[in-house]
Amino acid sequence: MTTKISMDAVISHGNDAPLDREILARPTAGPGQVLVRIKASGVNPLDLKIRSGKAPHAKHPLPAVLGMDLAGTVEAVGDDVIAFAPGDEVYGLTGGIGGLQGSLAEFAAVDADLLAPKPANLTMREAAALPLVFITAWEGLVDRARVREGQKSPGSGSRRCWPNGYPDRPGL
């Protein structure tokens, strides 16, 4: 049996240049990493901003494999990884920024702390659509609106999110 040591990936070569499909060396799982065979990945507005050079907060040297969200199957684990084993279905975030390989490829070596077991009731596509969207929602609610445990949200049927009005507008 022959082990495939290369992979297909989608590469961005420069600002607003067309994305190209290329064959790259397959990564390996280093210490603390999980090698994921990617079954689904997402393209987010941030990916498009990076590709067009309009994301100074998320610099990424080009050419590069972009993409952050993924879902797939564990192929191998690096040293010190005990949370996952080959064959596990996972979802989470990979690089795509800061010089780390993104998820628009067949495989990615991902920090184990950025992965979670894929819920059995979600498809790979559904799971791959969640990570960055969830983080964005969390930042909006917890970091910016300062929603805390015990508070009700507008979607829960309450008239107010906060008992004493909005944090930045008391009395509302």
Q: How would you sum up this structure, described in words?
A:
By secondary structure, the chain is α+β, with helices and mostly antiparallel strands. The chain has helices at residues 45-51, 124-128, 131-144, and strands spanning 6-12, 19-25, 33-41, 64-65, 69-77, 89-93, 107-111, 115-117, 165-166, 169-170. The protein has 2 domains: 6-124, Medium-chain alcohol dehydrogenases, catalytic domain (Quinone Oxidoreductase, Chain A, domain 1); 130-172, no CATH class. Mean pLDDT is 85; it is low at 159-166. Residues 148-172 are annotated as: Disordered. Residues 14-164 form the Enoyl reductase (ER) domain. Keywords: NADP.
Number of helices: 3
Look at the structure and give the CATH class of the largest domain.
Answer: Alpha Beta
CATH fold label of the largest domain:
Quinone Oxidoreductase, Chain A, domain 1
What is the ordering of alpha helices and beta strands? EEEHEEEEEHHEE
Structural class: alpha+beta
Percent strand: 25-35%
Return residue spans where pLDDT drops below 50 for at least 5 consecutive residues.
159-166
Total domain modules: 2
Q: Helical residue percent? A: 10-25%
Average pLDDT, all residues? 85
InterPro entries: ADH-like_N, ER, GroES-like_sf, Zinc-ADH_QOR/CCCR
Protein name: NADPH:quinone reductase-like Zn-dependent oxidoreductase
Region (Disordered): 148-172
Organism: Bradyrhizobium algeriense
